[in-house]
What we know:
The chain is built from four helices and five strands. It starts with 19 loop residues before the first helix and ends with a helix. The protein has a five-stranded parallel β-sheet, sandwiched between helices. The chain has helices at residues 20-31, 50-57, 70-82, 150-163; strands at residues 40-44, 62-67, 88-89, 118-122, 137-140.
Amino acid sequence: RWIVLRVQRTFNLVGMACWEAGLVLADYLLAHPQLVRDKVCVELGSGIGLTGVVLQRLCPSLCVLTDLYESVRANLAHNIALNGHEPVRVDALEDPEHWSTASPYPGDLARPRNESPVFVAPLDFFDEHVAPFACDVVLAADVLYAPELVEGFVECVERLLRVS
């Protein structure tokens, strides 16, 4: 199946382009779907969503795609929708504090077979108040493009894995 993505060349907004490491990570996931199937997966710095689209197709129990910038998250949600899935925008929920308990399926509708809930959420590596979230798999590709990001990234991953 084809994957359709909207990319934009925007000065100093790296999350709007397709980067080589994202292609490699997506290819790796396709070759090893058992790593994410039926798992709670969080991708840090999801950008345009290539890895997220591939991830969603591999049936994790939950798929959380994150990025810092609102414009990148809007494009990410657009790209997820372009590929046939309706993401839940965490920052648009009435109760964003408890987003992980929200259902992307309205009313009493059950989750469609072979479709994983996809959440698009804001995430700042340096925010020490990131809500604890138990996950099985943390993914990231091409997110450490500047040395000053390393410490915040490592601490963010530690916070996520500490809960798990």
